[in-house]
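Below is how a single chain appears once it has passed through the pipeline. First comes the sequence as given, then the structure the pipeline wrote out for it. We keep one example in the README because the format questions we get most often are answered faster by looking than by reading.
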Amino acid sequence: QVQLVESGGGLVQAGGSLRLSCAASGGSFSRSVMGWFRQASGKERELVAALSRSAYTLYYADSVKGRFTASRDNGKNTVYLQMNSLKAEDTAVYYCAADTQGTGRWDYWGQGTQVTVSS
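Resulting structure:
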């Protein structure tokens, strides 16, 4: 069983920055592929970024390339999402997720943190 807790969301003006954190406990964090997702109101959840076990970037959504940077610290069981040059369309609830089995299935999810970008 893995518990994921996101933090760092909030209200920011367009062009600003936020750093999200996701702290993991109760499982094999270092052996998990980690992902950041977001879901805007009325839209489907989308994958924003994914990191391999050794912190190689597996994926960035086109909409965030060059602005968002995902990273992880396996010693702290934490994954991060640095978000720069934020836009109103980045407004969403952001979730972290873990693929603990390496199957491509996200089997654990955090509760989400709200990011609101004012234009």
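The CA atoms of residues 51 and 57 lie 5 Å apart.

See the next section for the split statistics.
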